[in-house]
Amino acid sequence: MNKYTVSALIAIVAVVAGLMALGHYGLGNDSQARSLQTNMKQIQRSYKAALKAEDLQTLLGSLNEMKAAAAEARTQTPRSIYGEAADSADMQDYTAGMDRLLKQIDEAVDLASQGRLSELPALFDNMDAVKEEFHERFESMIQS
Ligand code: HEM
Questions:
Q1: Ligand 1: nearest atom to the Cα of 96
Q2: CATH classification at residue 45
Q3: What sections of the sequence does the record tag as coiled-coil (predicted)?
């Protein structure tokens, strides 16, 4: 093996390792691996869509999307506490916050299904309050 072949092999290994790293960090084709940020953006989109929904089907659809994104976000780790054990106090705090949001989304689905639409604005305000409370707590990495 001459030195050019060795250089070529090193280059190939570097490219393959780079592609594997991209896949690992969610930039590859693996659509199952949505980042926490992507899920948060989806929560926000669905929340806004639910607020301005004008029919029950759209409202329930938005709430379901919001719930799916929140459920996935619950299994992820905020950047501010990367590296902490899954059962650290911060991680428990974070999952408890996501549980509160998930419970509120379920309540919204129940209210909407029962036609109790006049009770929804207060519940949406409460969701916003939970968001504020937890964004504040994990604020070191929040830009919005
Ligand atoms: C209606 C409820 C919520 C909305 C609309 C919302 C929205 C957002 C948005 C737009 C971002 C910025 C995403 C980006 O980087 O572009 C964000 C980030 C974040 N949110 Fe929320 N959020 C909500 C509730 C929560 C709750 C309940 C928690 C914690 C229990 C939470 C924890 C976080 C964290 C930790 C980040 C930073 C992401 C990271 O570390 O990578 N959010 N959220």
A1: 30
A2: 1.20.120.10
A3: 33-76
Name the stretches of the chain with pLDDT < 70: 1, 3-4, 6, 8-32, 140-144
- Domain of residue 16, residue span: 1-33
* pLDDT digits 0-9 by tens, 67-102: 999 999 999 999 999 999 999 999 999 999 999 999
Q: Supply the residue whose CA is at minimum distance from atom 21 of ligand 1.
A: 40
Q: Residue 58 is encoded by which pair of tokens?
A: 């759209």
Pocket test for ligand 1, best of 25, 40, 123 (most atoms within 8 A of CB): 40
Same domain, 4 and 73: no
Number of domains in the chain: 2
CA-based Rg of the chain, rounded to a whole angstrom? 21
